[in-house]
């Protein structure tokens, strides 16, 4: 009896060691994708890789890497070449934020944020996107945020990087129109992941103060919204009807008013002592 040979497909996911990245890896593996899992915390990546292999029977490759390093995108491409597959999915999820007055921020930390949230994302989108275009199919998902739709005092640099991600991804999507490659900006709202801890937001305030439906949504549910939108080739996916409504208001109202409202909310988020 002839044995069916399963076609190998590859999904590359950055920031895969926690939060949305982990959930996107699970969604990809559930659909039969091999995964290339990228983050700094190799122990977490290996645990996730073992989980995906055991639960879904797919190969999971681990690449421990700091994407803020100048040579990082090249190392990602070398890892892809070693696997021997052109990615059908690229999820640029790696990123971090920092809370507080911009003038009091550490310049070196802000530079790293720019390099990770915008620089590495851009280079990987373009380099992997070229391979997808040549192959004739592919999906790129860049994780932005609802912070992309307005200025975010006290999260100013983070919000600016996410506005960049949204604008860049929409532009890339238009350039790809008419091809079988699509780019999606995924814009989740406040969700219970490790982001708040890394950004220095107080656990007791970071989500309860927002009082949004997305604050109580588990990361896996929000990730599925982004994943399904990416598969359909949608340019922008905002998770949750409340967040979609807020994004519309942010674009419709005078920018000064929106900034003051954002500052009123965000400055009440106390950093942990």
Automatic annotation (TrEMBL):
> SUPFAM superfamilies annotated for this entry?
NAD(P)-binding Rossmann-fold domains
One matching Pfam family: adh_short
Write the record's keywords in alphabetical order, separated by commas. Answer: Oxidoreductase
Q: Which InterPro entries match?
A: NAD(P)-bd_dom_sf (IPR036291), Sc_DH/Rdtase_CS (IPR020904), SDR_fam (IPR002347)
Query: Hey, what's the signal peptide range on this chain?
Result: none
Has the keyword Oxidoreductase been applied to this entry?
yes
Recorded GO terms, molecular function? oxidoreductase activity
User: What is the similarity comment for this entry?
Assistant: Belongs to the short-chain dehydrogenases/reductases (SDR) family.
The name of this protein is SDR family oxidoreductase
Q: Which organism is it from?
A: Sutterella seckii
């Amino acid at each position: 009896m002839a044995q069916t040979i399963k076609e190998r497909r590859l999904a590359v996911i950055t920031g895969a060691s926690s939060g949305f990245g982990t959930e996107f890896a699970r969604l990809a593996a559930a659909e039969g994708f091999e995964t290339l899992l990228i983050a700094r915390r190799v122990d977490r990546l290996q645990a996730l890789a073992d989980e995906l292999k055991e639960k879904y029977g797919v190969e999971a490759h681990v690449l421990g890497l700091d994407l803020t390093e100048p040579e990082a995108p090249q190392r990602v491409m070398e890892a892809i070449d070693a696997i021997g597959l052109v990615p059908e999915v690229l999820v640029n999820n790696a990123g971090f934020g920092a809370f507080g007055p911009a003038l009091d921020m550490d310049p070196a930390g802000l530079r790293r944020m720019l390099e990770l949230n915008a620089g590495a994302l851009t280079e990987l989108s373009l380099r992997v996107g070229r391979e997808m275009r040549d192959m004739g199919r592919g999906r790129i998902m860049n994780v932005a945020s609802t912070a992309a739709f307005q200025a975010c005092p006290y999260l100013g640099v983070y919000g600016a990087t996410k506005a960049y991600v949204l604008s860049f991804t929409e532009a890339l999507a238009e350039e790809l129109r008419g091809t079988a490659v699509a780019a999606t900006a995924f814009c989740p709202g406040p969700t219970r992941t490790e982001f708040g801890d890394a950004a220095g937001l107080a656990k007791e305030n970071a989500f309860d103060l927002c009082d949004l439906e997305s604050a109580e949504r588990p990361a896996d549910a929000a990730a599925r919204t982004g994943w399904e939108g990416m598969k359909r080739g949608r340019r922008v996916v905002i998770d949750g009807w409340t967040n979609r409504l807020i994004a519309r208001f942010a674009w419709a109202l005078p920018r000064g008013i929106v900034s003051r409202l954002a500052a009123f909310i965000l400055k009440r988020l106390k950093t942990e002592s």
